[in-house]
Design brief:
The complex is a heterodimer. Chain A is mainly alpha-helical. Chain A folds into 2 domains: 120 residues, no CATH class; 205 residues, MetI-like fold (Orthogonal Bundle). Chain A is built from 15 helices and no strands. The C terminus of chain B is likely disordered. Chain B has 9 helices and no strands. Chain B has one domain: MetI-like fold (Orthogonal Bundle), CATH 1.10.3720.10. Chain B starts with 6 loop residues before the first helix and ends in a 9-residue tail after the last helix. Classes of the chains: A mainly alpha, B mainly alpha. The interface between A and B is large, with 66 and 55 residues.
Chain lengths: 338, 285
């Protein structure tokens, strides 16, 4: 096991190094001049030159990379060209909103998707199965940004059930402001007993949450169905049936426990994808999260911010992958010995 | 389990989804080819008619008109050209990079394999949309850069796939025999290894087509792909955003077009996978 962990950690480190080099190189080949953006459109030539030296852009590429990465590891991710604030501070401000949305949406997706997959597998070949399969195919083919707007049309414009956009109502900000503890509005308002704000935050998160849930829902339903079908064909299930266990017990205890593992793996990896999906969803619902920050950074070619966000998401993905592999190896000796 | 439908019925149902997808794909291709001749207002890709703006759907304008008075139906039909082109070119580029690297890695093995696969791992650590966004924002937002960006985000999948195929083909008897008969490396790769990898490539590419169309629409939606006044579906949804609450048709129809196109390509991909390769029944990204 130790040897496996070391090998896997080593691989993850190599990949993370590669990610940082590649992201850095991307910003080096940009055709736009960062120094010019730093000083603004009306600067004189010598001011641009001065900014170039201040930003360290006159140094060779490898020196700049090592400077960047050593600062990065010490928590200095550079200064955003657009906000003139440290990138890490900006990210810390915007990240909780995105995390709240992602966790809410993914929970929604998996809570609905896994049972759908189980039903689909148990009723294999019936109309229920076909219905749920169509549903799951639709879930992964929907353009999220469009789905969000359609939900706004139906539930805000037509039915008036949910607010159009934002995280809490404008009025609530003044009448019952949310105390900043975790940055998750739902949690913060709940633990401070601020129920007005909680209600407002909850009604605001529903539509973007459903939009985000579409993809994990379709995916988890598909995966659960496939693995459930496989497990239900195994000998030990037949034995359990022969022993006269109740069907409910066989499904929920013996089959599901083995079928759920690959689904959880996919779930962990979907998290990183959802981080990127929120770029689109936050833009539709003016959700003040990392996606909004990243979109603005991208439009203004704010390269320290683009790099910070890109590396953060890629690292998250690598680490989640590592975590998943190690957990799998821990649970399944065939992997670590194979 | 007694409620199972007969096997034939199930197969037909399954095929029905695939055949539906396939028919829509053919229809899309047909529309894309014939767009200039069949759309009611061919000039509306560029021309504006401000006095006709925001007309709701009618017999004259099936999908209504947009904020510049252009016929949404004509623009949606025209959009099929771009979506298919972007998909095809991006996949073509990704295959051009990914396939040779995968074959080389799998066939040669050793240090070269190790290096190629670690580079692949690096690229696979970026969610494709993120990588495509970062690249097209830094290269400058336009449709060509978007295609390049998508290809850069997608090639590692093909390298991975081809490598494992090449490894399994490498050890097969007929390749060993060819080697024993003194065939050159190049000849073995082109005549024996590559043709045997074609099926998985076709399956994977057809499954990716939908995702790539989604990604390019998303890039355009974020302002990183096609630029106005191009009739591109993602861009149409994006520019319609300001007006869509009062004029629902502006975003509904282009978005529906993306959805239907992606859905049909996914159905075809799924169907192909089940028909061509019964071993690969497990869901895979």
């Amino acid at each position: 096991m130790t040897a496996y962990i070391i090998r896997r950690l080593g691989l993850a480190l190599i990949v993370m190094f590669g990610v940082s080099v590649f992201t850095f190189l991307l910003t080096v080949v940009v055709p736009s001049n960062p120094a010019m953006r730093w000083v603004g459109p009306h600067a004189k030539l010598e001011q641009i030159e001065k900014a170039r030296i201040e930003l360290g852009l006159d140094k060779p590429v490898h020196i700049r990379y090592f400077k960047y990465i050593s600062n990065f590891l010490r928590g200095d991710w550079g200064i955003s060209i657009r906000t003139h604030q440290p990138v890490l501070k900006d990210i810390a401000t915007y990240l909780p909103a995105s995390l709240e949305l992602i966790i809410f949406g993914m929970l929604l997706g998996f809570v609905a998707g896994i049972p759908l997959g189980i039903v689909s597998a148990v009723r294999d070949g019936t109309m229920v199965d076909h219905g749920s399969r169509v549903f799951s195919i639709v879930g992964v083919a929907l353009p999220t940004f469009w789905l969000g707007m359609i939900l706004q049309l139906v539930f805000f414009k037509q039915l008036g059930l949910f607010p159009l956009a934002g995280r809490v109502a404008m009025m609530t900000r003044f009448t019952s402001p949310i105390e900043h503890i975790t940055g998750f509005y739902l949690i913060d308002s709940l633990i401070t007993g601020n129920f007005t704000a909680f209600g407002s935050a909850l009604s605001h998160i529903v539509l973007p949450g459903i939009t985000l849930a579409a993809y994990p829902l379709g995916l988890s339903a598909r995966m659960t169905r496939a693995t459930m079908l496989e497990v239900l064909g195994e000998d030990y299930i037949r034995t359990a049936r022969a022993c006269g266990f109740r069907e409910r017990r066989i499904l929920s205890v013996y089959a599901l426990r083995n079928a759920i593992r690959p689904v959880i793996t996919v779930g962990a990896l979907t998290f990183a994808y959802s981080l990127v999906e929120t770029f689109l969803i936050e833009s539709v619902f003016t959700w003040p999260g990392l996606g909004q920050y990243a979109s603005r950074a991208i439009i203004s070619v704010d390269y320290p911010a683009i790099m910070g966000v890109t590396i953060l998401i890629a690292f998250t993905y690598v680490l989640l992958n590592l975590l998943v592999d190690l957990t799998q190896a821990f649970l399944d000796p065939r992997i670590r010995l194979g | 389990m007694s409620k199972r439908l007969p096997r034939t019925v199930r197969l037909i149902l399954k095929n029905r989804l695939t055949t539906t997808g396939l028919s829509v794909v053919f229809l899309l291709i047909l529309v894309a080819l014939l767009a200039p001749w069949i759309v009611p207002f061919p000039r509306d890709t560029v021309e504006t008619h401000i006095k006709d703006r925001f007309l709701s759907p009618s017999s004259q304008h099936l999908f209504g008109t947009d904020e510049l008075g252009r016929d949404v139906f004509s623009r949606v039909l025209y959009g099929s050209r771009l979506s298919l082109q972007v998909g095809a070119i991006a996949i073509g580029l990704a295959l051009t990079i990914g396939v040779p690297l995968g074959v080389v890695a799998g066939y040669s093995g050793g240090m070269l394999d190790e290096v190629i696969m670690r580079i692949t791992d690096v690229f696979l650590s970026f969610p494709p949309l993120l990588l495509a966004m970062a690249i097209s924002s830094l290269l400058g937002p336009n449709l060509i850069n978007a295609m390049i960006a998508i290809a850069i985000a997608w090639w590692p999948w093909y390298t991975r796939l081809l490598r494992s195929e090449a490894i399994s083909v490498r050890e097969r008897d007929f390749v060993q025999a060819a080697r024993a008969m003194g065939a050159s490396q190049g000849k073995i790769v082109f005549k024996h290894v590559l043709p045997n990898c074609l099926t998985p490539i076709v399956i994977q590419a057809s499954m990716d087509f939908g995702s790539i169309m989604l990604t390019s629409a998303a890039l355009s939606f974020l302002g990183l792909g096609a630029q106005p006044p191009t009739p591109e579906w993602g861009l149409m949804v994006s520019t319609g955003r300001t007006y869509f609450l009062t004029n629902w048709w502006i975003v509904t129809f282009p978005g529906l077009a993306i959805f239907i196109a992606v859905l049909s390509f996914n159905l075809v991909g799924d169907g192909l996978r089940e028909i061509l390769d019964p071993k690969m029944r497990r869901a895979r990204r």
